[in-house]
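Morning, I've got a small favour to ask if you have a moment. It would help a lot if you went through both lines with me. I owe you a coffee for this, so here goes:
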Amino acid sequence: MKTGNNMKTYVLTGILLTFSFYLLPVKAANLAARSTQPLISFDDTDVTGTEWTLTGDQGAFYLFNQETFKNLLVFYPLATMLLEMQATTFQIKDNLGNTIVNVHRDAPLSLEIQANGDVSLAGGDVFIDTATNRLGIGTTAPGAAIHLSAATPQILFDDSNEVGSEWLMDADQDRFSLYNYDTSKSLLYFDDLATMQLEMLATTFQIEDEANNPIVSVHRDAPLSLDIQADGDVSLAGGDVFIDTSLNYLGIGTTAPAAPIHFRATWPQILFDDSDEAGVEWLMRADQNTFSLYNYDTAEFLLWFDDLADMQLDMSSTAFRIQDQSGNNIVNVHRDAPLSLDIRSTGDVALAGGDVFIDTSANRVGIGTSVPLSDLGIKSPAPGIYLDDTTAGSADWFVGNEANDFVVKIQDNATGGPATTRIMTLDAQTGYIGMNKDTPVAALHVGSPDGVSAKVLVENTTAVVAPRTLFELQNAGNTKFTVNNTDAGVQWSFANPGTAFRLSRQGSGFVEFEIFNNGDATLKGALTQNSDVNAKQDIEAIDSAAILAKVVAMPINEWSYKDAPDTRHLGPMAQDFRAAFGLGNTDTGIATLDSSGVALAAIQALNGKLVAQNLSLAEQNQSMEQRVIELEQQNQEMAEQNQRIEELVMQIVTGQAEQLAIN
């Protein structure tokens, strides 16, 4: 792209645009122009000579009018704006043409928007502090939401709908007042001593609610009626009614109330007049000696208290009742009933002639006694407490004394009558406790009359895992417990005589199983350990000869346990046994099943050796027997040869003899 000084003119929708600029490569904007003084001209083609020019240089930006040949609007680099006003006023209008801002040409500086956003009007006479959202009139440092500063600051309220109806609020150093132009009087003012004065022109001063009903009315000629004192106390009617705000007390006839409501008069009275019922009136009255409640219908004192703390109730109706908010009777006393409630000088309370007694000094209640020995004392031939649950399907309970025993009973639901089945019995003679047992024969006797197995459960419900003793028996001597099958007539005993733990069948005359304190154990019968093939897995054949070799190599010693030095034993050490065979789950003990298995395997290996030796010996015997036969045959042959030799010798000898004889 070429660069150079060019003058070009553009027309966009009826507006003539003239530019004098250097053409530069466009980078950061859609159009970049550069010249010594760039211009934009706005030429209205419908009106001759009406032209506006926007131009700018290093010093300012201008809006220039060709008709007046003046810069009517100028912006400077310091954000300052200059408006050259040719007309009488400068106006800003809304979209309907209504003027909303009007500034006269000759007016002094009227609107200043400062760098921090604060706004000053009329040279600072009106100031808006935007940091604190405060308005100052006559001050540029407002100290409140609205701050009016003047020699005699005033606010005028002019009702444009009413001619002459104007109100003026003004203040000076000493007082603040509300002035009315109709009456030309200050009708309300406050002085610097916090005194307020109300100038009453009407007959009465009234405060009304939103429906215009008077809620406060003060007559113009009335004496001082309301006195709000410096400490906040309030006095009405010259002190006849006094409110002590520090104590929240109300005094009637006194300015020193000693109670939340203090009524002081020669005959203090309170009248209750029901405006809905003609003639239905009640009067509460007090004097030096009595306090009474008087009824105008009956012309009688129906309730009174004297200074001796006595109370009298004059009952005109059949009964005296106290009802709840729904009209239900919660207290009902018949007119002809004997003394039912006796509140004594000590504070104790007796009901029903003393059948129910409240001992307030000990905080105890007696039923059937005026001398309760505990928090609740009940005295009767069969004292008890009946708990009757009115909920459908719920059980009723009785707790009390029955036949000199303390019992807890539950209602027989089949009959719906009073509680009959004993759940717990405390035997007064023995002190034994029976659970479902009317006559316990042990300190704790748990029964099961309904066919369900009686069970005692001792449970620790904490989630913390730790060893705990949940069942313990203690006795100074042989301590035991028994398990008795009453149907089979067999009873077993678990006992601790001090030297061992014993398990024995009662009546057998033996101790069937015994574990001594040193860990030795004896068993009267045979010990059978589980060796069921159905309970086993990973069954493997063994090399009995290898086991025999290990047995031969393993040391076998005679020894004693350290806690039983007088008793000798024979056998291997558990460490050697486990090292040789790897059996069991510990190297400090040998399971009898493992040791017997090793012994049986070694016996099998020895038996194999004996069988092989017997076969070899049998073969040797057979060979020797054959040799004996052969030797016997040889002996026989030698015997026969000897016999023939003897015969030949005899023949020779006989022949020689005969020859000799011949010779």
Observations:
- The CA atoms of residues 351 and 538 lie 85 Å apart.
